[in-house]
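During the first year of the project, the team set up a workflow for recording each protein of interest as an amino acid sequence followed immediately by a discrete structure-token representation. This format lets reviewers and collaborators read both layers of information side by side without switching files. As required by the reporting guidelines, we include two representative entries from the current panel. The first entry is reproduced here exactly as it appears in our internal archive.
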Amino acid sequence: MDYNSLLNTYSSSLWKKIGVQKRAGVALPLFSVYSKNSIGTGEIPDLKKVIDWCRVTGMSVIQLLPLNELGSDNAPYNAISTFGIEPMYISIKKLRNADLKPFRKEIRALKKNFPAGGSKVNYNIRTEKLLLLKKIFSASVITGLADFETFKKNNFHWLKYYCLFKIISGMNSGKNWSEWDLKYRYIASYTAEKILKDNENEINFYIWVQWQLYEQLISVKKYAKRKKVFIMGDIPFLVSRNSADVWAYKNYFKLQLSSGAPPDMYFSKGQRWGMPPYNWDNISADNYSYFREKIKYAENFFDMYRIDHFVGLFRIWTIDLRTPEESGGMDGKFDPEDERYWEGQGRNILRTMINSSEMLPCAEDLGTVPYCSDKVLKESGVTGINVQRWEKDPDDDFNFISPADYRINSVATVSTHDSSSLPAWWENEAGTVDEISFRQICEKFISSPDKYSEIKDKLFDKELSGNGRLYWKEEVTDKAKLLHILGLDYETGREFLEMYISSFNEKKKFLNYIGMEGDSEHNVSVHFIRSSLEKISSSSSVFSIQLLMEYLYLDPGLLEKFRGWEYRINFPGTVKSDNWSVIFPVSLEELIEFGINGEIREINMKYGRI
């Protein structure tokens, strides 16, 4: 496969820096990994061990979930700053220019109270770690510290508003900025300067913490470069409504709206995220300075970056804040509404991003994708994403697309942080339809609840249905049988037919796709996992990047214990305590010595990704 065509695109200079060749990589949230040195959760220096593991397994890309400072919901895509890094990721033992001897006892106590590992992240570590950091800062001398002063000077354009937001939020007991007094909601320059002057020590503490995080991330990037591993950061497309960014740059956001996603086959009510959409007219009038600056800052830490919700660059689904919450994203519209503006808007924003740094962008082009998206990606030389379970050909009875037909400019992956894992998909979703979506379609034709139950029982297998998914009965052998049970003709039953064709016999089609024809449809084995990983690795995609857990399923013990429906990073469109809290069941020290490493390396070597 010739990938040199990427050198004839708008991002050719960025490809020359990375190197145009097939690569394998791993994706992970930092909070999901840990080492013997970690306190509470994964810490930035732990990434050096991930880099070492990549060298062992033949990988050359590490894709991270966002490291931005978290808000109250702990969601990394709903950060309180597009610049600030989450303080819980700091390694106290690796602090620069700090005497830790007086704090050894407290550090040991913190590690004892918040041991690394376990099943779920204990986010109380954030508060406790900051309390200890404040003590260490108070005992440290920053006067005349050249690197600190340089960092402060070079980044004060965002540190100023970040620190002000933190200070005023503290003065208001953590209330959202929209609930602050008017003089703080719409702050005058003299009021801001007074707060900065009156709270100089606390301001310096917040800057000191961000400087320490900066230095630790810089160290990781240098280590990765020596080991010839690239780090792909993730820059959230949006930012929390209650963030320093929205508070400071209100004119860059449409505060009367919430962003989200329209209804689809996976989310029958659509999604309502809460973050305000951008006001692109105002941002472009400022020559995209806000976007250019945050990308430039991220370049300090990363070689590549993932453009979250790439399709939102063209248009984004918006919901008026006055719309009842229970309607989700159903009652929304695209902004801009006129499709004629989508391609031009998306191209202009993407080119601005490409021109803003030497990092290679990679786009997350999932969801309801506009036609112009793929065109702009190809001409720009930016990768999209091909998710194995969703790559089907509607013109070929929804059979799975051959990996040879995946886009060259793409990241091929088995699953994403927003989806179920491969075993959970196979055992709970493959061959099923969403029950809420099915009911909603039925309500257009069936008024009686009893009639609905009767039809559902005729179409779906009770034993194999669960978790809001309905599994087709084998006897619903064709479209004619489906329409007969529904009592509808072809035209009125079109929505049911689309649902049926895309999901019926999905398991048999997938087994055929991975070369396991005739195997048991309901058995997830290590052989099944390896066959799926080999298939995705064999794709034409320039990058094959898998979540760490998908590789770990090659171990039979881990596959048996962690294959459940609930074991995933995030359930999109929900606020759950389990979201963003999963910890992988192997320490980084164990990972480097893990028995499956040779098998992973063998796959990467077999398909030319080393």
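The second entry, processed by the same pipeline in the following quarter, appears below.
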Amino acid sequence: MNNYFFNRLARYWNNWKLLTFRKFFYLPHIVTTREKRFFAALALISIASGATFFGRIFYAVTNPAPKIGGTYAEGILKEPRAINPVLAVSDADRDLSRLVFSGLLAYDGNGALKTDLAERYEISEDAKSYTVTLKKNSVWHDGQPLDADDVIFTIQTIQNPAFKSPLRPNWQGVQIEKLDRFTLRFTLRAPYAPFIENLTVGIIPKHVWEKVSPEQAGLNEFNLKPVGSGPFQYDSLKQQPDGTLIWYQLTRNPRYYGTGPYISTVVFYFFPTEDDLIGAWRRGDIDGFGPVTPARIPELSRKNSVVLQIQVPRLFGIFFNDSKSKVLADRRVRQAILHALNKKEIAQTAVSGGATPLDSPLPWLGEETAVSSELSYNPDEAKQLLTQAGWVDQNGDGIREKKALLSSRNQKTTGAKNKKTLPSGQPAGAASKDPSVLRLTLTTSDWPDLLQTAEKIKEMLAKVGMEVQIEKKSFADLETTVIRPRNFEMLLFGQVYGYEPDPFAFWHSSQVKDPGLNVALYANRKADRLLEEARQTSNPAERNDILRQFSAIVSQDVPAVFLFSQLYFYLIPANIQGVNITKISLPANRFADISEWYLKTKRVLKR
């Protein structure tokens, strides 16, 4: 058979050598049907073999690389009002601002500092001055060049009290001067190690905003149709008749000075509730959203979606206000609350997973800053402390009463019940005015996870003889009627730190009044000195040692009970590549590296 095949092939070759070019056109009429099939099969085998061979070579010498194209749609709770880094106050404001505007520096998805608009920066030996040199190829979305004048204008706008920028406290006392068109120097009154994070603020264009007065700034159209220098630029939006935003579309910035962007279009849809948002995701109207409530992760798990678990320097705890409660002025009572709470159980159940129990106001320093959660949980110790403080359950109703006050009342009223019933319509916590009953009010937001945590706290404190009334508030009411005026006995709330953690605003005695964030009204001179020293220490290791000393003092004074830190859960489609997020300080920072995300790929030669 083999000889026959090669003989036929040799005969054909000898005959073809004698064919002229014109005679090739007559071949289909000369060869037999069997020969046609033979050569067709031979041609297909040759093509397939060649394709496989060259395909292997192609893949061997090339790598997949991002390709421009595709659309990503994300859902957001509530709508933005000011897509402007100087005026942004809500998560929605900051989310969109993060895509549209650039800072001098930036943090990547792993929390590492990198240059952005800045080409380089230098810090003086005394840590009081920061010299920044800008990239020379940066331009605004409208094509205008970006230079030092824009940076100076942005910072001066923030510092101007008439603009009411929420960032103003971060820039008080900072001087800025222009050295040349692309070089600036920031000068501080005293060394402040966390200042470097201030340089990540988004820069706004002077030529757009310089004619806008402070009175008009909040309502200016550029807050919804911004001009920035970031990886994405404003394209279009849709509103309801009352002006409420339905969706907001950004497109890639072709003038972007950095890597990418590769995604062509990013669209944001706005929803009033999480249920509405999840419904839109199920219909396929959006591709992703965050944060995801931990309890809902199982129902959102699909093969075409991924839920990222991202670390956040955020802690939740119970903050005490002994100016509103004489009971809490006794440190033994605060210690009893600490020992009565099983933080491990709270972290595992009250927030539906995704939480880590804490005993320190500084979770990023590690467990060595305070005793472990297993040791701090001791209900027998809690009961003993309350008894030492004079709180006992004499009438057997499960709630402790004050010995002295109870005896005095019994002398006047024989057989009277010590536990008062809260009248219908009376606000929560009103019954706590009865000084003989160990009853306190715990105020928190109406966020489901925090309400669930509050119920768990109430249940655990009841086991040691304390009655807790839960008072829930909307986030807006909580800020205006509770936190700012310090109108609470116990507050279940959170603290959010930046990439360069600075507990000064939360714990220094100078911050006890609004707009300071020392909601526990904590005052300790030694703690104050340590916080001031830490701010002026540029060496991270030395700064952390100082903060550990501060943490030990706070743990001893018990101005709060620190419960847990919680992860940020972010749902994205599985086909998005280039996403590398492990640590953020604010929800908006999930977009830190969005210019490197991509939906489509191409092959490029290996280097």
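For the second entry, the following points were noted during internal review. Residues 86 and 165 are 6 Å apart (CA to CA). The longest helix spans residues 33-61. Both points are flagged for discussion at the upcoming steering committee meeting.
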